[in-house]
Design brief:
single chain, 22% strand, globular, disordered C terminus
């Protein structure tokens, strides 16, 4: 046998071993109360000896631990396996034109440290990189964890981005951020593996990992809008990893003029700056707002929503018009791609969710035959409704993390067994972070997306 053939065979065997470890780790993660070695063998199709060897390796790496013994009808009680919370950690950064969020999670999804800062009105890339590195170091110190166990750092940022080069190309709502090599700059600043991904893609991936199945759209409501897609249970990224740029979808032929030259584009009609401008123009707001001051705009949007909820008809009309446009866009996308359901989320979902009312979802049901799930009355699921197709045998989605100010919950996931790529998604109220590190780590953090309502076109 030639040396090259032997090397290829060894590499192939190594990849199989890595994949089998991923499968076992994923099965342990998915178990609610722990899982025994016998159950792992039955669930994965691996031999009992292979499972025993892999479990031994994962325990030696500190990724899983043995727990209580579970009695069975006959024979020796089985020892249940669990993820080890202190096995690994991951850091997430969500860069939004309105707010920058930082978080550290452990292996079972507990949030060890988090911080949110208002994005400067005119953020300089170098200054943002330097301040981010400093705040990450502060979080590591606050969390009191070993850097050796941090598998990496993930950045979720507005597109378009160049995933291969780790570059933010030219986001429309971040002036002066053309061709910014943020991945490498932050890697050099903090000394950790870093990967950059698009925010809406991160949202769709986190939804998929947290139990989203089939074909669905994640509609992102932030400073801009975007669409994350999962088709045939796989996150759709497109050739350049920039799928979901839906801002120029026309939702009203005689709508608001857009810089692109058309009228009635979704992005221009639904961005906070325009909503606040319309509120000032029609009397929904009774004071002027500096539309170039992003913190002012954010505060004014919250005020506009509050006025609408307390009976101000002019404010209500602005937000109702926005919701009609968003739902029209969701309807078009979902019907075009034959999607099962739509998930809403993003930094502004908490503010805008009351206007996606039960009545509007009922109208979707009337038009498209949507089965509407009742609200989930749970601490992790307040103010959340779901709509999905009536399909026999279609599983209900698992609960999502609460998205309310002052509360943060996370979950962790091992590498995706379908791609063998380690991944991390982390969450803070109003933000979504997702991470595919290049390291050969066995398991890295994930969390849920913001609380959401689902609507499923028929």
């Amino acid at each position: 046998m030639s040396a090259s053939t032997s090397t290829r065979k060894a590499a192939s065997q190594g990849r199989i071993a890595d994949y089998n470890q991923t499968v076992i780790l994923d099965a342990v993660r998915r178990s609610i109360d722990g899982v025994s070695r016998v159950e792992l063998a039955a669930a994965t199709g691996l031999s009992a000896q292979a499972v025993t060897n892999i479990v031994r390796q994962l325990m030696a790496a500190g990724l899983i631990t043995e727990g209580r013994r579970a009695p069975i009808a006959r024979g020796k009680p089985r020892t249940l396996l669990h993820l080890n919370p202190q096995g690994q950690y991951a850091i997430g950064v969500h860069l939004d034109p309105a707010v920058i969020t930082y978080v550290i999670l452990n292996l079972v999804g507990e949030t060890l440290a988090h911080a949110r800062y208002t994005t400067p009105a005119h953020p300089d890339p170098d200054e943002v990189t330097a301040s981010s590195a400093a705040r990450i170091e502060e979080l590591i110190t606050e969390a009191e964890i070993s850097r050796d166990k941090i598998v990496g750092l993930g950045i979720a940022a507005p597109g378009p981005i160049d995933v291969d080069r780790g570059v933010i190309v030219d986001p429309p709502n971040l002036e002066g951020w053309q061709d910014v090599p943020l991945r490498d700059a932050l890697r050099d600043a903090v000394g950790l593996p870093v990967l950059l991904d698009k925010d809406v893609t991160a949202a769709a991936a986190a939804e998929k990992w947290y139990g989203g199945v089939g074909n669905f759209l994640f509609f992102y409501l932030g400073t801009g809008v975007g669409a994350g897609l999962v088709i045939n249970n796989e996150v759709f990224r497109g050739p350049t990893h920039n799928s979901g740029q839906i801002g120029n979808m026309i939702i009203a032929n005689e709508g608001i003029p857009c810089p692109c030259g058309y009228r009635g584009c979704l992005g221009e009609s639904s961005q906070p700056r325009m909503l606040v401008h319309l509120g000032v123009t029609n009397g929904g707001l009774d004071h002027d707002v500096d539309l170039d001051d992003r913190p002012q705009v954010e505060a004014a949007l919250v005020e506009l929503a509050d006025r609408a909820l307390h009976g101000n008809e002019a404010a209500r009309e602005v937000l109702d018009t926005m919701v009609r446009g968003v739902l029209k866009a969701c309807e078009d996308i979902a019907l075009l791609l034959d999607l099962d359901h739509v998930v809403f989320g993003g930094p502004h979902w908490t503010t805008l969710s009351p206007f996606f009312s039960t009545q509007r979802l009922a109208e979707f049901r009337r038009r498209h035959g949507i089965a509407v799930d009742p609200p989930v009355d749970d601490l992790r699921n307040q103010d959340r409704r779901g709509c999905r197709r009536r399909r026999s045998g279609q599983p209900r989605s698992r609960p999502y993390v609460l998205d309310q100010p002052g509360r943060t919950v996370g979950q962790l996931i091992p590498p995706d067994p379908t791609t063998r790529r380690p991944c991390t998604a982390t969450h803070q109220p109003g933000s979504i972070l997702y991470f595919f590190p290049n390291s050969a780590s066995r398991s890295t953090p994930r969390s849920a997306i913001p609380t959401s309502r689902r609507c499923s076109p028929g």
